[in-house]
Amino acid sequence: MEITDLEVIPLSWSLPEGEGMGDSRGFGRTRATSLVRLETDDGTVGWGEAFAPGSVVEATVDELFRDRVLGMDPFDVESLADRSYTDPYHFGGSVFVQSALSGIDVACWDVIGKTVGRPVHRLLGGEECHTLTPYASTMYFTAEEQPIAEPIERAVAEGFTAAKIKIGSGFEADVERVRTARKLLGEDAALMVDMNGNYRPRQAIKTARAIEEYDVAWIEEPVPPENESGYREVKNRIDTPIAAGEAHYGRFAFKRLVDDRLVDVVQPNLGRCGGLSEARLIADMATTENVAVRPHVWNSAVGVAAAVQFAASVSPYPHTRNVPEPMMLEFDRSENPLRSEILETPFDPTGGTLDVPQEPGLGISVDESAVERYRDD
Fold first, then answer.
1. Helix (H, G, I), strand (E, B), or coil: what is residue 76?
2. Which of 234, 279, 235 shows the shortest CA–CA distance to 254?
3. Which stretches make up the Mandelate racemase/muconate lactonizing enzyme C-terminal domain (predicted)?
4. Average confidence (pLDDT) over 25-30
5. Which of 103, 130, 364, 371 is deepest in the core (most CB within 10 A)?
6. Which span out of 27-36, 76-85, 324-333, 359-368 was modeled with the highest average pLDDT?
């Protein structure tokens, strides 16, 4: 078997004028990403996602990957990650190289699963897994005024038992947002917060101590991703667990997070971390050092599918089945047709559970007519 075709498909969709949405760093109107479609000589098609703009992914693929991927046996996929660090030298750790690699890697695993008739999570070494616990990623900052309670009220009505909210815009606003979320979610729900790296260590520590009474499961990106000494300072001075990883790329960046004990939870994004091959290495490193793994997901439906399969494969170590700490998967609740419309059967996170596809590969069927509607060449 060999790969005979590699196509990068840029996608984008924009909110109406004046309806920006985002985090403590600012607002945006456009959601953009890139799908990768592979086809083999026997007609098997694999899908992946490179979570980066199409023009950049296309150029990176053409420059660094196309010649080596065309004619490659998809079962050799794990060699791609290794070679990305050494050939060409020095480029392997960059976000765009890792994003392009991610899309190709996931598409190869999709092909492999379809070829052997197994879902990807079983190929990665996971036990049989049928459901995950989704958490609503919500309470975004918005350009237009919106009562902060509304997103959480919707999440509760949809049956979510866990949620992550945006904070990081100032001490008083942080406390109010967390207080409101906890009140509406109830005492038993898991509540996480995301500062998106908008604080200096002292600011993050002040907020972290103030919201501790609301039983926050983790604080995501309290300081910028490059501020490793800041992570160390915050972690040493608060009791709430720290999570990070959406802005880290490849095994070596995650190794520093794990080895230096900078975080309690690593969050690889399957569209940027290097794909399923790198994510498996990252998970092995993390669980070996007793660091939790919870994938970051803000992708299209293809990236969601990759994250679902990966999450279903992660070892529960050191827990037994008797410890009530389920694998949680982020599920963005903002409007995004790139997530909700490009599969023939979209993922449904409502009701407190998320089904893990058991069909071969990623277990999804891409609606190529919908992909064409949002194509942005």
1. helix
2. 279
3. 145-241
4. 88
5. 103
6. 359-368
pLDDT range class, residue 325, cuts 50, 70, 90: confident
CA 44 to each of CA 137, 165, 279, 361, 367: distance values in angstroms, whole numbers, following the listed order: 34, 40, 24, 11, 16
| Whole-number Å distance between alpha carbons of 7 and 51 | 15
Is the pLDDT assigned to residue 85 strictly greater than 90?
no
Runs of H (alpha helix) within the chain: 54-60, 66-69, 78-86, 95-116, 120-123, 149-157, 171-185, 201-211, 228-237, 250-259, 275-288, 301-313, 337-340, 368-373
Domains of the chain: which residue ranges?
3-117, 121-368
- Residue type, position 21, single letter: M
| 5, amino acid identity | D
Q: Kindly list the catalytic residues.
A: 296
Spatial CA neighbour of 106 closest among 184, 37, 158, 168:
37
* Fold match, 3-117 / 121-368: no
CATH code of the domain made up of 121-368? 3.20.20.120
SS3 74: helix
Cβ within 8 Å of residue 32, ≥6 positions away: 10, 11, 12, 13, 53, 54, 376
Task: Please give the CATH topology (third level) of the domain spanning 3-117.
Answer: Enolase-like; domain 1 (3.30.390)
